[in-house]
């Protein structure tokens, strides 16, 4: 944890969540009348099942923190935010807030399309607990940030969806509260507005009087903005502390969940894994190195195969860019000629220095010569789904946009001007 983050931890606690639990009753049978309800009661049929969403959650947030909450869908993040925002109340435990809390759970909630932009600002401010005088003091900042000065006296229903998003988001972040609670709202508006939001969060992070609680699936935002982060899984605190460590744990949880889903699909299909068959019953690519790496690392992976037929055969490996799409690298169809038949494992290395951040998947195919064309091969088996290998590059030196990093291109300036 950085020195700045440690300093913040010495500040007073502005939010304390103490042993909070929450469950919901999900209906399983519907009683259409009193008679059926009585029959269900006599048979001991409750008509619902209990879903435990949060289980004994405890944590605290200090004044000036930018606190991130991450977790897979269904883990309990949104329920926790609604409890913090007093939309829901916990079954057990307590939540204590010291200061003015401004929740922003969903974009545009509380807006009325028949009212003007100006009227909606005051309506939304009132719903957030501000007086008309307090909204007066915030109004100009809200409108300026939304860049909608010329449209505030038009009805909201005449706004484009992008304009509505900008106004709703501006009301939330420019509201003069002490604690700002945001749920999945960083990717709002067009590129220019997102840059503006990025600048705002960079500045608010420096303000020791402002506290931000951010729920997001974007690990780049967690690492960039947050001084501390917490991961929730199955309604429990899975990890809390350094944003880099928590984001890595979240990324690994996603990779494992994807692999488990693919394995379940294979079991439901029965027989050989997708892409494999009697001739090639085993072909899988798996990580030997950690699956989350920096560009200075070399990613080592292995390919395990089973091939018993005589004759030449090859392994071909393609690297797919999951975020940007497309094939980043392909070894070609006859690059790696295997010498050993049967059940074996071979290892490969990929230097990562020229790559930007991203998520990549390695797909291996086992191939034999094409009897007609010597330059080509035919796929016998392909390692896809759970038999493919995924790895992630996360490095502060990198950018997110292009595939190749700035280190991939160098230049030499040559002066070719005429000299007398």
TrEMBL record:
InterPro entries, sorted: AAA+_ATPase (IPR003593), ABC_transporter-like_ATP-bd (IPR003439), ABC_transporter-like_CS (IPR017871), ABC_transpr_TagH-like (IPR015860), Bact_Polysacc_Export_ATP-bd (IPR050683), P-loop_NTPase (IPR027417)
Any Pfam family: ABC_tran
Q: Look up the coiled coil feature and give its residue ranges.
A: none
ABC transporter domain location is 15-259
Keyword tags = ATP-binding, Nucleotide-binding, Transport
Q: Does the keyword field hold Transport?
A: yes
The text of the family note is: Belongs to the ABC transporter superfamily.
The name this protein goes by in its record: ATP-binding cassette domain-containing protein
- Native organism is Bifidobacterium platyrrhinorum
From which lineage does this chain's organism come? Bacteria, Bacillati, Actinomycetota, Actinomycetes, Bifidobacteriales
């Amino acid at each position: 944890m950085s020195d700045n983050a440690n300093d913040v931890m010495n500040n007073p606690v502005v939010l304390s969540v103490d042993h909070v639990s929450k469950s919901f009753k999900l209906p399983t049978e519907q009683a259409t009348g009193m008679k059926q309800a009585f029959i269900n009661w006599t048979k001991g049929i409750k008509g619902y099942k209990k879903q435990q969403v949060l289980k004994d959650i405890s944590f605290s947030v200090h004044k000036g923190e930018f606190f991130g909450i991450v977790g897979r869908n269904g883990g309990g993040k949104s329920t926790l935010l609604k409890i913090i925002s007093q939309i829901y109340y916990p079954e057990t435990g307590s939540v204590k807030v010291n200061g003015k809390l401004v929740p922003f759970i969903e974009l545009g909630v509380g807006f009325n399309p028949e009212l003007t932009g100006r009227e909606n600002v005051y309506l939304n401010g009132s719903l957030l607990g501000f007086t008309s005088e307090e909204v007066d003091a915030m109004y100009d900042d809200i409108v300026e940030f939304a860049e909608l000065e010329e449209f505030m006296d038009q009805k909201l229903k005449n706004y484009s969806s992008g304009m509505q998003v900008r106004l709703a988001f501006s009301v939330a972040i420019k509201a003069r509260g002490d604690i700002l609670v945001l749920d999945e709202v960083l990717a709002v508006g067009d590129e220019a507005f997102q840059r503006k939001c990025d600048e705002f969060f960079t500045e608010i992070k420096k303000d020791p009087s402002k506290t931000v609680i951010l729920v997001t699936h974007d690990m780049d935002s967690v690492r960039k903005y947050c001084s501390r982060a917490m991961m929730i899984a199955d309604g429990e605190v899975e990890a809390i502390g350094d944003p880099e460590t928590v984001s890595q744990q979240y990324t690994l949880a996603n990779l494992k969940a994807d692999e488990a889903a693919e394995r379940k699909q294979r079991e439901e299909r029965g027989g050989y894994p997708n892409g494999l068959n009697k001739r090639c019953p085993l072909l899988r690519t798996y990580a030997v190195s950690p699956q989350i790496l920096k560009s200075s690392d070399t990613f080592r992976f292995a390919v395990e195969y089973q091939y018993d037929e005589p004759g030449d055969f090859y392994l071909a490996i393609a690297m797919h860019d999951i975020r940007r799409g497309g094939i980043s690298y392909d070894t070609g169809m006859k690059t790696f000629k295997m010498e050993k038949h049967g059940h074996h494992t071979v290892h490969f290395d990929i230097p990562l220095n020229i790559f930007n951040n991203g998520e990549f998947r390695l797909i291996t195919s086992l191939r034999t010569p094409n009897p007609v064309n010597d330059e080509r091969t035919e796929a016998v088996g392909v390692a896809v789904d759970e038999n493919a290998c995924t790895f992630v590059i996360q490095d502060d030196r990198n950018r997110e946009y292009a595939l190749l990093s700035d280190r991939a291109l160098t230049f030499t300036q040559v002066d070719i001007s005429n000299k007398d």
